[in-house]
Amino acid sequence: MRATHPEAQWFDEARFGIFIHWGPYSLREIEASWPLMPHSSQHLGVDVYESLADEFNPLNYDPKVWAKAAKAAGAKYIVLTVKHHDGFCLFDTKTTDYNAVQRGPKRDLVMPFVEAVRSEGLKVGLYFTTIDWHDPDFATIPISAGIQSPKPNVYDPMRWWEFHKRFVEQLRELLINYGRIDLIWFDVPGFGADRWRSSEVKQMMLNLQPHLIVNNRLPDAGDYETPEQFVPVHPPDEWWETCMTMNNQWAYHSDKTCYKSTLTLLNTLLEIATKGGNLLLNVGPRPDGTWPEEALERLEAIGTWLKHSGESIYGTKRTPVHFPPCFYGPITVKENTVYLHVKDIPRFPLEFRWIQGKVREVRLLRTGKALSYRVEETVGVSGGVHGEHYVSRISIDLAPEDCDEWNTVVAVDFEGIPVWPELRK
């Protein structure tokens, strides 16, 4: 786990990225790929589903608009589904005619995407699933009991390796033809590392782009873990990222009533940051290539908050201890500073306890305003850190008019790196 290349370390500081699920399935407002499965409530027959590739023609697709919206939202990277389980490729490939260049769009949809993302200074991520239900040589991967490929194949080693050659060749095309790629996002790790030749595939990718980061869904080859649609109570020790929808599915749906609130999304981002992870928040563009207003409104609000309080999110480290009894709300940490996140208007002075170090300043992060505070401290034992100051309680005055609509951040700056002692039971 965890990429060691110097140019891969951005991932542990990013904290916020945008996921994009988009393809022919967007035409029917159905989930990506899964309606191919007979058990799906959105089931379409294989022929009907695959014919959507000829109807798909996103006339209003402008990835420059996507990239600007993501940057304004405060995201540091974008991941696009260049091939989902249905096998349709948004990129130009010699391995199949089931692609955007030879079907409906009649053009490569990935090249302008990567160029637009780079032009905004964001990192480029490509979602590339291990599953390919369109490929005739793909064998059924046992995702879970009762779920099989819409085109069932009995596993045949010779046919599997024919598929695997195309799988590797498509990866090579993406990593050779599209310039610098920062992240490959695999999906559905079935069969195990030996059958995928994971170590060989990973090495091939790193030979082409040594800085590349790969998630953990190529078996035994990942740099980070990927909980989906939830925030783990006990986060992984290594790099990790929660991917999550804004509404009730990954692909586009016109239902405006099922979106999570901006406050819910911000609180999710904050919880993930306190645990040292990244949030990969999904947008499902319309079939014409535009983003739903409901998604844009929420992203704009998140971006506004991050513009003044992003210091408490980007580059922070997981909180060394759970908030109580240190503080009643979430805490993030960066070098000499501890950030206290206040979700409600306080009726009494804020209290922050149980940390060792000498306070230099307390400030309202949004404006930089210095806040008055009082420290009740005791002198530590001989040889203690930071002049032997042991802070037992910091009381901070936060006026209602200084509070933010969503989340007010109070930054406590110490003269050195604060030390979190083992809490008394």
Automatic annotation (TrEMBL):
The answer, when asked if Hydrolase is one of the entry's keywords, is: yes
GO MF annotation terms = alpha-L-fucosidase activity
Task: List keywords of the entry alphabetically.
Answer: Glycosidase, Hydrolase, Signal
- Annotated site, May be important for catalysis, chain positions: C243
GO cellular component, alphabetical, reads: lysosome
The UniProt entry's coiled-coil ranges are none
Main EC class the enzyme belongs to:
hydrolase
Residues forming the Glycoside hydrolase family 29 N-terminal domain are 5-311
SUPFAM superfamilies given in the database record: (Trans)glycosidases (SSF51445)
Q: Write down a Pfam family by its short name.
A: Alpha_L_fucos
UniProt-listed GO biological process terms: fucose metabolic process; glycoside catabolic process
Query: What is this enzyme's EC?
Result: 3.2.1.51
Family, as annotated: Belongs to the glycosyl hydrolase 29 family.
Purpose = Alpha-L-fucosidase is responsible for hydrolyzing the alpha-1,6-linked fucose joined to the reducing-end N-acetylglucosamine of the carbohydrate moieties of glycoproteins.
- Matches recorded under PANTHER family: ALPHA-L-FUCOSIDASE, ALPHA-L-FUCOSIDASE-RELATED
Instruction: From the Swiss-Prot or TrEMBL record, give the protein name.
Output: alpha-L-fucosidase
Q: Which organism is it from?
A: Paenibacillus mangrovi
